[in-house]
Amino acid sequence: MKIFNFETKELDYKYEEYRKESQLKQIYIIAIFTASMYFTMVAFELFIKPVENSQMVILLHSLVTFILILISFIAYYKINYSLMIKTLMIAPFIASLINTYVVIYSHGGALFISEVYLIVFWVFTASGLNLKDAMLTALAIVFQSIVINYYVGVLDDNALFMHIFWLFSAFTLSFMSAFLLHSSNKTIFLQHLQLIQEVKNKNILLQELSHRVKNNLQIVSSILNKHSTKVNDQDSKEVFLHSIRTIRSIGMIHEKLYLSEDIESVNFSEYMNSLIEYIKYSLNSSNVEFNVKCVNIHISLKSAVPLGLIVNEILTNSIKYAFNNRSSKKAIINIEIEKISEHIYLKIRDNGVGITFDRLEKNFGFKLIESLTTFQLKGELDYFNDEGLNYVISFEDN
Q1: Calpha distance 176→133 (Å, rounded)
Q2: Which of 171, 223, 306, 310 has its Cβ near the most Cβ atoms within 10 Å?
Q3: Class of domain 289-398 (CATH, top level)
Q4: Cα–Cα distance between 103 and 57 in angstroms, integer?
Q5: Tens digits of residue pLDDT in 107-156
Q6: Which ranges in the chain are annotated with CATH 3.30.565.10?
Q7: Tens-digit pLDDT profile for residues 72-104
C-alpha cells in the first residue's frame, strides 16, 4: 500500500531503499527500548498486584521480551531483512495473545484488555513496519482479540461491544497517525533528494569554476612566459619566472579541486608531489633530493592556497640559495606535514649553508611567507638554523 505514488518507479525504488536503511536503525532502537520497558512494566505489575500462575505469566512475557531482543539483534547486524519483518509482525501478535490470556485467566476476565490497544498503537506508530505490514498485523490482533473474547465469553454483550468499539478506535487513530507519519516521511524524502541534487549541481558548478580559474591562470602564466623571453636583464627575467611559478602553484590547487569529488578541500599529499615535480622541472634541480612525509592529508581550500604559496616560496628559495658555496654532499630538502585534530604543522628543512636572519628578513620571499602565515592562515611562523635553514609553520584549519 502506498500513501501516494511517486512520478516514476525509480523514485519508488529509491524511497524503499532509503526507508529500509532508516527503518533498520529505528527498529534496532525501538525493539531494545520496548523490550526493556515491556519487561519492566510486567515486573512492576506483578510486584504491585500478584496473580495466580505468576511463573507462567513471567515465562510468557519473557518470550515477548526475547523476541524483541532477537529483532533488535537482526536489525543491528542486518542479518536477514525479510526474516526481521516477519518476526516484527509476529511479535506483537504473540504479545496480544499473551496479554489476552493473562487478563482472562489471571485477572478474572472483567477487563477491557487495554494492553491490546497499546499494542495496536505501537504496531502503527513505533514498530518501524511500513503501512501495509502494520495494517495486516493490527487487523490480525483485532480479529484474534474479538474472536477469543467472543468464544471464551468472559465479557457480556455490552462489554464486548465496548471492547470492539475501543479496538477499532485504537486501530483508526493509530492508522491515521501512521498515515500522516508516512506521508511526512515521503515529503522529507523528496526534500532530501532535492537537497542532494542541489548539492551535486553546486559541486558541478564549483568544479567548473575551478577548471576555468585553472585555465585562466594558465593563460596568464603563458603570457608572462612569452614576455619573459623578450627580457634580457637576468634579474627582471627572474621576476617573471618567479611570478609564473607562483601562479602555477595556485593553478595546481584548482586543478586538484576540478579532478576531485571533494570541492571543499584539497588532498595536500597529492598536491605536494605535483608541486615538487613542477619546481624541480622549472628550476632544473633534479640533483636535489626531496623527502616528503605527508600522508593523505586534506586541507580546506581557504588554507590550501596560501599554504601552497608558502611551500612554493620556501622550496624555491632553498633550491636557489641554500646549496651555494657548500661541500659536495648531496642536497636534501625534508618536508613534513602533520594534521593533529584541526591543527596543521608544516616543517621544511634543507641541509644547506643556512642564512643570517638579517639577510633573511629583508628577503621579499620571506616577507611573503610571513604575511601569508600571519594574515591568511592566522598561524605562527618559526625559523632557525640547524644544519641548514628550518621553517616550522602551524595554524588551525577549520
Answers
A1: 15
A2: 310
A3: alpha beta
A4: 10
A5: 554 445 677 888 888 888 877 788 888 889 999 988 888 888 777 756 67
A6: 289-398
A7: 888 778 778 888 888 888 888 888 888 777 777
